[in-house]
Amino acid sequence: MAKRLQKIIITDEEHHLPYSKGLMAISIMATGLPPDQAYNIATMIHEALRDEGKPLVSMEQVRRTAEKVMEREVDSKYVDIYRKWQALGKLHKPIIILMGGATGVGKSTVATMLSARLGITRQVSTDVIREVMRSLFAPELIPTLYNSSFRASEKLRIPLPPSTDKVIVGFLEQAAMVWVGIRALIERAIVERTNFIVEGAHVVPGIVDPQFFKDAYILQVVLAVDDEQQHRSHFEIREVETEGMRPFSRYLNSFDNIRQIQDYILKLASEQEVPVFQCYNMDQTIGMVLDFIINQVFVEYTNGRVAEGYVDKAMDAYAGRERALSQMEIVTEEGGVN
Predict the structure, then answer these.
(1) Measuring CA to CA, how many Å separate 3 from each of 45, 48, 133?
(2) What residues have CB less than 8 Å from 132, skipping those under 6 apart?
(3) Contact 149/225 with Cβ under 8 angstroms?
(4) How confident is the model at residue 265 (pLDDT cuts 50, 70, 90)?
């Protein structure tokens, strides 16, 4: 029987780092599994590697062991998502996630959780972009920037026909201006090859054509809460969480406007074929959004070739690149070339 080890070293990682259950759990959470379950699986993977009695393992061996454990412990769909995410390896293009939806549906919370699970370190709210733009333009010049998206109509100066939906016009006018900042951030992320999440009501379906940014994976989603009472309760929770800094009454007074904007966003999402995810159970929503993101990137990464066995080919290609890079480093060190 092989000797049971206490420490496992991953040989093809920089500096031969020891196996980390925390890092492994983060990788597994990208499948949509909740943190506690992901950590339990990461622990099982560690135990399986220790039982093999090999102190040095490759990252490919770790991944294969992870698949075996997950096949035994969780639904096969999570294994499929894990394999696809691992097969992507080091993408040659950044992932840009654009998350829209009306005020109060849970965009900030979902975006933060997505960042943690996908290892994305850059995230920004369009409210922040709007705040920056306020410092550049006086209220007299662009008054609609100086109200919330659901009250931008109060600052409209252009005479409109009585039949015009001023709430939507004000919302769109503000969104169009904030889009200038969103576009600049996307372009910067592409130059830096940095994964990025932009969330906010101003991320309107159809406002960006993904084909315009061919050097990135542009993924647009919309969050919604169909049930009015549930939607209203989000603002009550927000008031408590911010210790009154974002009072419930402020949103309640404009709740009809917020719901009207949501209806309009959902209509646009349907027309533009942007997926909509209901935000009632946070874990379920995160799981569905992760599933969509990873599958969409994988389909584009493989040029639509998702037939059985292609995941293995992509994994083999990734492993081959890693081995090639490792050999190049060894040659460089031996040859003394910088």
Answers:
(1) 17, 12, 63
(2) 181
(3) no
(4) very high
Q: Using a CB cutoff of 8 Å and minimum separation of 24, what contacts does 23-28 make?
A: 24/62, 24/66, 26/116, 26/117, 26/119, 27/66, 27/82, 27/85, 27/86, 28/66, 28/70, 28/82
- Do 94 and 189 form a contact (C-beta atoms < 8 A)? yes
> pTM of the predicted model, to two decimals?
0.80
Q: Which amino acid is at 272?
A: Q
Residue 56's DSSP bridge partners are 9
Percent of the chain having pLDDT more than 70? 84
Give the E-state strand segments of 133-255 in sequence order: 196-199, 217-224
What average pLDDT does the chain have?
84
Element containing residue 100 per DSSP (H, E): strand 95-100
Question: What is the identity of the amino acid at 282?
Answer: M
Taking CA 140 as the corner, what is the angle to CA 135 and CA 141, rounded to the nearest 5 degrees? 70
Q: What is the per-residue burial (b if ≥16 Cβ within 10 Å, else e) of 301-324?
A: bbeeeeeeeebeebbeebbeebee
Do residues 252 and 232 lie in contact, with contact meaning Cβ atoms separated by under 8 Å?
Answer: yes
State how far the alpha carbon of 276 is from the alpha carbons of 138, 222, 239, 268, 319, in Å: 36, 5, 26, 11, 35
